[in-house]
Amino acid sequence: MFYSKPSTFPKDFLWGASTSAYQVEGCADSHGKGLSVQDLHRPINQADFKDASDHYHHFKEDVALMKQLGLKAYRFSISWSRVFPKGTGQINEEGLEFYHNLIDELCNAGIEPVVTLYHFDLPLALHEQGGWSNPETIDAFVDYASLMFEEFKGQVRYWLTINEQNVMINHPNAMYPGKVPSQKELYQQNHNMFLAGAKACILLHEMDPQAKIGPAPNIIAVYPKTCRPEDIIAADNWEAIRDWLYMDVYVRGEYNPLAWAYLEEKGLAPEIAPGDMEILKNARPDFLGVNYYATATVSAAKNDGHDRQPRNGDQQTMVGEEGVFRAEENDLLQNTDFGWKIDPVGMRTTLRRIYDRYHLPLLITENGIGSLDVLEEDGSIHDDYRIDYLTRHFKQAGLAIQDGVDLIGYCPWSLIDLVSTHQGYKKRYGFVYVNRGETELKDMKRYPKDSYYWYQDTIAQNGANL
Ligand code: BG6
């Protein structure tokens, strides 16, 4: 459909940017912080999370850069094990003070903090006691959430419970040092995470009725490879298993029927204790965070032993599942330097589908392009591909708003360069270049990229330049 008027963004639109604690902070094993599961990743010849982007020491400078950028919102996560080194019990006062200082700095700069409670970095001590398989982790999470809600009441108005729970279940390799749990165990953990998020949601509504809370899953539209009816069914099934399984529990307090049929068929259905569904029903989010990078394309499974392809799968690269779907290439789309599809229209489709199902305000909590950026001798970084990528995605966000989607903000990934979960430091996402190498730390100096100045202009014009 063509619109006769150009799309516009609401005047209070939250132009933002995102990061997560373990990917930027550094000081992973100092200043009283306990280790998290992420801190055990020690890849050879690739950045680990020990020093990351040293945001712990540069946060004032980083907030000043945000202010200069004109940012309305900053989405970041609190490191659970920096606050509770063992996940529960004794508080690390210095860690708590760090977040007070960061949030004060943001509020003084007029930037809305959008705070994720848990972004992949489960405290190692809890992991060693069974992690999400142990129901006591639910209690630990709720105690941690309760402290955060108490400490930051009146300052933090947007909370996110759990980042990409669906990625932790579908692509668990990066989340589990050592042995990756069986799929059966993962879906039980998933159920426990649902309960943890729901209890935090209920708690915030009691403790701070002015504040809002929602999840931040990685949601993507799934395309059928052809209009063959069997391909349509396969796309619907994978979308239900990958996306709606999570969203339906978050918003409706129900397991999606297509996803549940899959879980039963595969013997993966979790045990549900009496009272669990009531808790899930009583926890309605105020808004939905959406991490979007790229769509997926699938065809019908053949169930011949070859539905799953032998290629590396990450959160955006599907491998297929025997008897469920086959992963397909979408030849109509271009790839990033790191092989992810670029599909701005797919983002509009995704936003429309989510809004159509749930009718809740949406906040894009991640979207961006990981690239091999180059720091020139004069300190400039010419990332025109990032400007192009974001221009195309912002335009589609504008069209989604015109379509009737209540999109309240957009936080690209990422504010500053950070350690990519899969590809270390060479895969850069930031508006701001951080001068460190893959393993060589250098001086960590910050350099605004061309995209930084372009985004500054975009925010100043509320998207009218797009
Ligand atoms: C999301 C995560 O899955 O994608 C981020 O929430 C992550 O933590 C981002 O960094 C990009 O993925 P990657 O593997 O390129 O770092």
User: What fold name stands as the CATH topology?
Assistant: TIM Barrel
Structural class: alpha/beta
The pLDDT mean sits at 96
Written as H for each helix and E for each strand, in order along the chain, the element string is EHHEHHEHHEHHEEHHHEEEEEHEHEEEH
The appropriate CATH architecture is: Alpha-Beta Barrel
Radius of gyration over all CA atoms, rounded: 21 Å
List ligands, each type once.
6-O-phosphono-beta-D-glucopyranose
Distance N to C terminus: 19 Å
Structural domain count: 1
Q: Could you give a short account of the major beta sheet?
A: 8 strands, parallel
Question: How many helices does DSSP assign?
Answer: 14
- For the largest beta sheet, what order do the strands appear in spatially? 5-4-3-2-1-13-12-7
State the total count of DSSP E strands.
15
Strand content: 5-15%
CATH superfamily: Glycosidases
Q: Helicity, in percent?
A: 25-40%
The low-confidence parts are none
Question: So what's the overall shape?
Answer: globular
Describe what you observe in this structure.
The chain has 466 residues and is an alpha/beta fold. The chain has one domain (14-460): TIM Barrel (Alpha-Beta Barrel). 38% of the residues lie in helices and 14% in strands. It is built from 14 helices and 15 strands. The strands form four sheets. Strands 5-4-3-2-1-13-12-7 form an eight-stranded parallel β-sheet. Strand 12, helix 13 and strand 13 form a beta-alpha-beta unit. Helix 6 (136-151) runs parallel beside helix 8 (183-207), helix 8 packs across helix 11 (276-282) and helix 9 (229-252) packs across helix 10 (257-265). The longest helix is centred in the middle third of the chain and has 25 residues, at 183-207. The radius of gyration is 21 Å and the shape is globular. The model has no long low-confidence stretch (mean pLDDT 96).
